[in-house]
Design goal:
Strand order of the largest sheet: 1-12-11-10-13-14
Number of helices: 19
Protein name: Nitrogenase iron-molybdenum cofactor biosynthesis protein NifE
Largest sheet: 6 strands, mixed
Family: Belongs to the NifD/NifK/NifE/NifN family.
Helix content: 25-40%
Distance between the termini: 53 Å
Pfam families: Oxidored_nitro
CATH architecture of the largest domain: 3-Layer(aba) Sandwich
Structural class: alpha/beta
Oligomer: single chain
Pathway: Cofactor biosynthesis; Fe-Mo cofactor biosynthesis
Function: This protein may play a role in the biosynthesis of the prosthetic group of nitrogenase (FeMo cofactor).
Strand content: 15-25%
CATH superfamily of the largest domain: Nitrogenase molybdenum iron protein domain
Amino acid sequence: MKEMKEKIGIVDTLEERKPYITRKQEKEQEIPLACDNNSLAGAISQRACVYSGARVVLNPVTDAIHLVHGPIGCAGYTWDIRGAKSSGIETNRTSFSTDMKELDVVFGGEKKLSSAIDELVGLYHPPVVFVYSTCIVGIIGDDLESVCKTASQKHNIPVIPVKSEGFKGNKSDGYKAACDALKKLIKKPPEDPTAKKAPRSSETIKPKINILGDFNVAGDVWLIKPLFEKMGIEVIVSMTGDSTAEAISRAAEADLNLVQCSGSMTYLAKWMQMEYGIPYLNASFFGIEDISLALRKTADYFGSEKMKQQAEQILETEINRIMPEISRVRERVKGKRAAIYMGGPAKALTLIKGFAELGMEVVIIGTQTGKKEDYEQISYSVRDGTVIVDDANPLELAELLVKQKADLMVAGVKERFIAYKLGIAFCDFNHDRVVEFEGFDGFVNFVQEVDASISSPVWKAVRQRTLIPEAVESENKSGKIEKAAVAAGSEKKSGRMEKATVKEMISEENHATECKGILLKPKFLHQKSETAVESQV
């Protein structure tokens, strides 16, 4: 343990946090990274709670009532945390809360919850109600299951308790709570003897799939479904992006599940495999390589030569169509250094390939919910020296961005201002974005946003911050590594260099004229402001 800490003292952080930050190791060497633990107290973690994990998975179910049983503050975590779009009814965009007060905490909130369900069902007539428990509910011991069971019998619809008390784990536990709720919606498919006997390779039967772990952020899934439909495949449901209670109930009719967000949906995919015999494949729909793999693996699974030919035809047509723009941007951004910090490991892994297609180098990569096997795969995919971090906090990210000389950070909205304050370009890949990044057109959108972010002249006019390190390693002519101080005029105190600091450098040139009149492309902006209605019951 002592040796490991000495090797990975990459940033100035809490001693207990050091095992969570490492560098890519040489081949066949185990990555010494701690992960999959609860966040360290006092480390100002980026990781969210159980309730938030459950909410981000379930909230894109568009025709459901999402009722938060707890204080009104928790209801602020609502539909817009995912930016999920709907092609039909949008009941999910109204947030409901029982708005528990002090007296409810003392005397219990079960009666208030029961009344809230009755009122909401009478107003909206939903096909399903999800009731989320919060920290305070877990503490006072309200019997959610009993209230929901009574309400379900009374209204003849599923009223499903989501056991998501925030304090009892982390975001990954929230994913499981959401999947447990979805299980109760999935119905056993009707018996079909003819379909059961038919071979998978039959050209006469239309195969059916589910896409698990796609939340239709900015309309992503609308760019993916047509690709499978052109291959002669029916997509029953995308869980949970743009999904309805009825579509989810049919999920067990599928022949195959494609799992994109492995962190949130592998648990459900394994359950469906055990319960209904539906196999699953991991897939990604971002970047040319991963889209190609997804289509080819699906065609290979069904064993249809016609489907394989259709997949190859789609790939040839689409790649030829977008490649001129990809090549143009590649010439502008190749050699740039990217930092990746994602909620889940699946997105992090697919971004590595996306940046490789642009000729960019990944110098930092981290996630909030990665497990050991995820980080091992990440380690195989990046170059030696790449920093790998689990559950980072803002101070760690800021120091890493400077030390690794990143030109671009790709992360979620919380990390945006860390990058901006350091004068580093930023691209939002998380659930808050308003532009599709999946599919072929989505990848074009992504590379254009990367180009617009990195190439913006604003970086010439803003404060640039550079780290003055305590010491840097430089190689002398004989090949030996020696420590050399680089800060001119640095003073030693007690025989040691001063702690690394950040200095500001403001460009002396006037670049304001270059920025004048330059606007980001309209599709990268919120053109229509949409506001959620907070309904207090």
